[in-house]
Amino acid sequence: MKSILVFCFTLLTALMLEAITFPEELIWFRPEWVLLVILYWVIALPLKVGVGFAWFFGLLVDLLQGGIIGQHSLTYVIIAYTCAVFYKRLRMYKPWQQGFFIGILVSINQLIDFWIDYYFGNAEPTLYIFIPAVITGLLWPWSFVILRSIRRIYAIR
Q1: Model pTM?
Q2: Any idea where the domains of the chain sit in the sequence?
Q3: Structural contact between residues 144 and 40, judged by C-beta atoms closer than 8 angstroms
Q4: How far apart are CA 19 and CA 8, in angstroms?
Q5: Is residue 98 classed exposed, middle or buried when 0-12, 13-18 and 19+ CB atoms within 10 A define those classes?
Q6: 62 and 71 in contact (C-beta within 8 Å)?
Q7: pLDDT, tens digit (0-9, with 9 covering 90-100), for 37-72
Q8: Would you say 79 and 106 are in contact if contact means Cβ atoms under 8 Å apart?
Q9: What does this gene product do (predicted)?
């Protein structure tokens, strides 16, 4: 029960960070907070956290951002599944090396999001869509340290 509460608290914090409004000029520099936290928990506790949680919190992000319902759920499920498949390999790397892989996963997320938005006429082609992936990959080592210390403080296994 304690592990579910801590997990939900960290994701609700990520949802609040996702809700922060950015100026129009800086919108491309917003990291994918919710996906970052989901990927941490998938790597840390792959038997407890998986695609079901990714799907649910993807729906919450869709509702928060007012986009197409199911768009983030689809991308989060694909990315969480990919991360769950490779979690043993990811654990062997240092956090900065994991950040590179996380950046690639978030790039895939951004690309799928762009395809869906472009299909519905809500986006124009630009390479700026990959900036959040770079920012999220760079934030990974610090997020990893913070979330790991939270997990150790509350003895979540």
Answers
A1: 0.93
A2: 29-153
A3: yes
A4: 16
A5: buried
A6: yes
A7: 999 999 999 988 889 999 999 999 999 988 889 999
A8: yes
A9: Involved in formation of the rod shape of the cell. May also contribute to regulation of formation of penicillin-binding proteins.
Cα separations in angstroms, 80 against 29, 108, 144: 22, 12, 16
Place of tokens 């892989």: 101
pLDDT in tens, 42-51: 999 998 888 9
Whole-number percent of the chain with pLDDT over 70 = 100
The two three-digit tokens of residue 21, written as one number: 């409004």
Q: Any idea which residue has 């007012």 for tokens?
A: 66
DSSP code for 13? H
32-46 in b/e burial notation, b at 16+ Cβ within 10 A?
Answer: bbbbbbbbbbbbbbb
Could you report the per-residue pLDDT of 112-147, keeping only the tens digit for each?
A: 999 999 999 888 889 999 999 999 999 999 999 999
